[in-house]
Task: structure prediction
Amino acid sequence: MRKYEKCLVPGYLVLFSVFPLFVQDRYILHILILCFVWGAVAEAWNLIMGYAGIFSLGQIGFFVIGGYASAMLSKLLGWSPWLGMLAGGVLAIVAGLIIGLPCLRLKGVYIALLTLACVDSIPYLIIVAEAIGSGGSTGLADIPSLTLGSFQYGANKIPFYYTALALSGVCLYIIYRVIYSNIGLGFMGLRDSEDFARSLGLNEYKYKLLVFAISAFLTGIMGGFYGHYVSSIGPKLLGLDLFLTVIMMVEFGGTGRFPGALLGAFIITLLNEFLRGFGLYRLVILGGIVLSSIILMPEGVIGYLDYVDRIRALVGIKNKAGTNNVDAG
Amino acid sequence: MTSLFVESLISGITLGAVYAVIAMGLCLVYGVTRIFNFCHGTMFTLGAYLAWVCIHELHFSYGLTFLIVLPVMFVIGLGIERIVIHPLRWKSNWQFTTIVATLAVAILLENLIQTIFNPRTKMIPPVLKGTVAFHGYVVSRHELVILAVATLTILLTQLYLTKVKTGMAARAVSQDTIGAQIVGIKVDRLFSYTFGISVVMSAIGGILMAPKFFITPLGGWVPLIKGFIIVCFGGLGSIPGTLYAAFILGIFEAMVSQYIGPFWVFPFWTLLFILILSIRPRGLLGAWG
Result:
């Protein structure tokens, strides 16, 4: 574990909780809320892809399942949105286990294909589920906003901002704790040397299902929050746009490093907003930037921290904590 | 009833032939370079758009269109391999970075297509118009053309792999990359050629399918995923397996579309994929695990 990683989550929380004291612009707060949501989603993706080495491309599916579950429960059955979000997370776990079970016998790219095919058939499920109120291909609108006791989240962004920050902080903390727990060591061991890890008695199935469940749960909860925040959700979320944007966050930030995907999420979300002025060319430019970044720095932005270490080593400062160099496998 | 069955069988065989061409391209690239090419579907779309430009805007004949589009696609394939994939190969985590890189190429090209040609659907006329009646069964002439061109492509690829020197080298590399390097095969050059050929195969599929379905900028994703499913079903890297799988799944798709409804085609593909992977992950004739 590196020294800086310990104070990362608290630092992140402190930095962004004082931020609205200085800036109250609605647009900037909105973008930051999106950054928090995508940061948590990308980091959950990083957990399964970078740390566990499972090429799951199904994360957006869990996001949409969580969003739909929470939206439908609160809109149609009148559940509290918070309970709905939790139920969304639990449903995402169920979906994660359903996808995860056939993945247990598979390796590498087969998992990528299977999860991609599963995600691409979710829109059909949504259209079929129109009978029970999924809204069909147009999606659901007017999802109830969040409430806290008697307090109503209205047009004001500040309550949403802090809720998103708290949720993403909790998600990041859970991911951080998982990575440096025995579970994390278990699935990193399976990633780096599967046969050796299994010969030491690690239960492969248990760890793989566990990592599917954890990342699905966190993604599902963020999906639920997103639905309540933008108050509409539709199968359009499953389009390639979002899928590619989030996978780019993970790759751009750097896989298998703790704050990597979070960093990537902030950079890509901000870039995406800056490029809105370019209209149709936005995705072309974004694709170009990401492509060149992959070619020029395949380790991701976070890989530059290694250069810092190297320079420090050159200058003669010893990095005392930096022995456990978790690298992408 | 029986004529309906026979006609959907024929349409299934034509579909299977096109899928075979697309999936063989994927299979070839995976077999030789171990890369899963996520912009294969975009090449399908790009081929169809280039054909649209030639036929609809420049009023070329189909023969001339093939003569122009296929070499252009080959060069595009070479370029993508050189610029995007070559720098990433053998670096740490390259299997993942190449997937993301080809995805990025796909999104870039697709949006470029969308900005150049606008998102509205395009249509090109069939190669031969009209239908042929055969013992009371009606088949459109275009389906026969698809079948002929696809079969020709498959045969040519097979000839290339068994008789031409670079093709044989490609097979050698797919069996043992290091061994092939030791005996003096220029592996890098071979990777580029293979990639170019697979892009051409995808473009052939795109041009053949264009008159049957509309051309849209995002139309390449479904053939891509179907191609992947076929390659997995046939067994990664096995060309005979891919051919069997393509025809089985093509007929399966035509039957589902005829008797259950076109809406259910894709969910059934996914279901079948999950079943295949849970029962026999190696695929029909899988050489590699």
